[in-house]
Specification:
The complex is a heterodimer of chains A (321) and B (237).
Chain A (H helix, E strand, L loop, with lengths): L8 E11 L4 E11 L3 E5 L6 H8 L7 E6 L2 E2 L4 H5 L2 E4 L11 H11 L4 H14 L15 H13 L5 E5 L7 H17 L1 E6 L2 H7 L2 E6 L2 E6 L1 H8 L2 E9 L2 H10 L3 E9 L2 E9 L5 H10 L3 E8 L3 H9 L1 H4 L1
Parallel strand pairs in A: 3-8, 3-9, 6-7, 7-8
Antiparallel strand pairs in A: 1-2, 1-4, 4-5, 9-10, 11-13, 11-14, 12-13
Helix pairs in contact in A: 3-4, 4-5
Chain B lengths: L1 H15 L2 H23 L8 H29 L1 H6 L5 H22 L2 H9 L4 H28 L3 H16 L1 H8 L1 H10 L1 H9 L5 H23 L5
Helix pairs in contact in B: 1-5, 2-3, 2-5, 3-5, 3-7, 3-8, 5-7, 5-12, 7-8, 7-11, 7-12, 9-10
Bound molecules: adenosine-5'-triphosphate (ATP) and magnesium ion (MG).
The site of adenosine-5'-triphosphate has 12 residues of chain A, from helix 1.
Chain lengths: 321, 237
């Protein structure tokens, strides 16, 4: 703990590997999170996001590697490290027989807060998480979205230095999603936030830095802007054409600026995915090419990059250049 | 310590708001009441509670595990343990808090039976010694039984498993002394010393021996210690 960067680095994970069985769920995961930074973990199901978060929060030790939180090792100095954390687990486990306010009071006591401060903070978080009408409701009777809000409320109750949120916006309605994202951004001004998601726009909206994790390994790490730029190297169009695929396919490929065309048949419709060079709008050229051949253009739309495409790109980076 | 208190208080509220706990309480009252009537119906009424104590200890073999099975198994099943163990809470505070809550419920259950000796005092002339010492023994025995239940509840997320295993262990420990005759010699002495029933007997006869008090307190401490270690082991690599 002597490096000069120590003041700045809130979370440092080095060489994290975790085995549940013979296959590692995560392997050699390394990252740093600065104080006041919002870091997003992006990855598909089973990528290892939850596993990583459970290790950071000290719920379980990694099979190999170590994590320090504000300079405290989460395994060796677990208690000190845990004092700094607020955690929203993925499944939002709550005591279903308790009322919202008494649950929050209990969690506050467990975090070692003074009764007076608990009382004050409960009314604040109930306000922030819009739980006002429900503070006396038994948690078991709340809808999923409201339970999620209770989960967020308990995570921020003690104003932790580090906030770890596993898919914080899942299951809540669109309006609340917007508010929650804003809330996380506000919190991120003072607190260090680590969140996970499989929604790319969400991560790029909230986070200052994104880690893309895939099959237990970090495959990319960048700011959302840089990531988006790299990814927008390729645009994609989806075209439906009434015509013989054997002829349509080469015709589309001949259009200048098109890099790749794939064809699939979906419910008797001939669909083509057309990848075009960055920043080019080829809708005009493509529709001309189709019509000039006497085929009918049934549909033409731009599609954003799906997460799968991103992973394909990232796992075959040499092609990206 | 404040945290242990908070854990205990939360669990006490769950006990007193839970129909299951009341069913356990009712069964306890019904069974002990039955044995109390046996005490009264004795052909040579001695105005004592020896049947009541025997009945209470036997039924607690089932009821103590029923009270404790939920305490940690449910946290593991529902995943609430994830938030509990990532809070700055020491493992012993969790275990001691849960244990204290179950002890409070057990004590209130035992307190409800106080009207049996009260009846004796009103309508007969009992020897008060065995009554006081019997209650002390019952509490010490109950506390040991609860600590065994806490351990099994810590080891599994399945409440039924927690119940069955701790009831089994308790049954073995309780009746260990009946096996003493079979083995004989050194082993007989050992089994007798480990068995709970042989330590309880003196209490119901009005003898308060520090050896027996020490025995029950050690059993309680031992199983609580194991529970704390079991909970801690989640933090080991
Ligand atoms: N308790 C467990 N026991 C065994 N294997 C597990 C356990 N938890 C996770 N895994 C495995 O570890 C891998 C990573 O899982 P993890 O839950 O970390 O993924 P995730 O990125 O959070 O996925 P999701 O987006 O679905 O939440 C998966 O292959 C999963 O099957
Ligand atoms: Mg997950």
């Amino acid at each position: 703990m002597t490096t000069e960067a120590n003041d700045d680095v809130m979370i440092q994970a080095s060489g994290l590997t975790h085995y549940y069985g013979p296959q590692p769920a995560i392997e050699d995961v390394n990252f740093k999170v600065k104080r006041g930074e919002i870091l997003g973990f992006l990855g598909p199901n089973g990528a290892g996001k939850t596993t990583t978060m459970r290790i950071i929060t000290g719920f379980m030790p990694p099979s190999q590697g170590k994590v320090t939180l504000g300079g405290y090792d989460v395994v060796e100095q677990s208690l000190q490290a845990r004092r700094k954390v607020g955690y929203l687990p993925e499944t939002v486990p709550l005591y279903t027989e308790m009322a919202v306010a008494s649950y929050l009071r209990y969690m506050g006591t467990l975090r070692g807060m003074e009764p007076k401060r608990i009382k004050q903070r409960i009314s604040e978080v109930i306000d922030v998480c819009r739980l006002g009408d429900y503070h006396k409701t038994i948690i078991g009777k709340l809808s999923k979205g409201f339970r999620q809000r209770v989960g967020i409320a308990q995570a921020i109750l003690h104003e932790p230095e580090v906030l770890v949120m596993d898919e914080p916006t899942i299951g809540i309605d669109p309006i609340q999603v917007v508010e929650t994202r804003k809330l996380i951004q506000d919190l991120g001004k003072q607190q260090t936030v680590v969140l996970s998601s499989h929604i790319l726009p969400e991560v790029s909206m909230i986070c200052e830095r994104v880690l893309i994790i895939h099959q237990g390994r970090i495959v990319a790490e960048d700011t959302p802007d840089n990531l988006a730029q790299r990814l927008q190297g390729v645009d994609q169009l989806q075209v439906e054409v009434g015509g013989p695929p054997a002829e349509v396919l080469p015709a589309l490929k001949r259009v200048k600026g098109v890099t790749e065309v794939t064809h699939r048949r979906q419910q008797n419709r001939e669909i083509y995915s057309v990848k075009v060079q960055q920043g080019q709008d080829l809708r005009d050229e493509i529709s001309r090419a189709v019509i000039s051949n006497g085929w009918s253009l049934l549909n033409l739309q731009q599609v954003g990059m799906s997460l799968e495409d991103i992973f394909l790109r990232l796992t075959t980076q040499e092609e990206l250049g | 310590m404040r945290t242990a208190q908070a854990v205990a208080w939360k669990e006490i509220q769950v006990y007193f708001g839970n129909p299951m706990a009341y069913i356990v309480g009712l069964i306890f009252l019904a069974v002990t009441g039955f044995f109390f009537v046996l005490d009264l119906g004795d052909p040579f009424p001695e105005a004592s509670l020896s049947n009541f104590y025997q009945g209470a200890t036997i039924i607690l073999i089932l009821l103590a595990p029923a009270l404790t099975m939920r305490l940690l198994a449910e946290e593991q099943k529902l995943g609430t343990i994830e938030l509990l163990l990532t809070s700055p809470v020491r493992d012993w505070e969790v275990i001691i808090g849960k244990y204290l809550a179950s002890l409070v419920f057990l004590l209130s259950m035992i307190m409800l039976t106080l009207y049996y000796p009260l009846l004796l005092f009103i309508f007969a002339d009992p020897d008060p010694g065995p009554i006081y010492s019997g209650y002390l023994g019952l509490i010490l025995y109950g506390s040991a039984a609860l600590s065994i239940g806490i351990l099994t509840s810590t080891l599994t997320s399945n409440q039924i498993v927690a119940f069955v295993v701790s009831a089994g262990v308790l049954l073995l420990l309780f009746f260990a002394n009946t096996g003493a005759g079979v083995v004989g010699g050194f082993w007989a002495t050992l089994v007798n010393e480990v068995g709970m029933n042989s330590h309880f007997g003196d209490f119901s006869r009005g003898v308060i021996d520090t050896k027996h008090i020490f025995y029950f307190l050690s059993v309680t401490a031992f199983f609580l210690f194991l529970s704390i270690r079991a909970l801690e082991s989640r933090r080991w690599r």
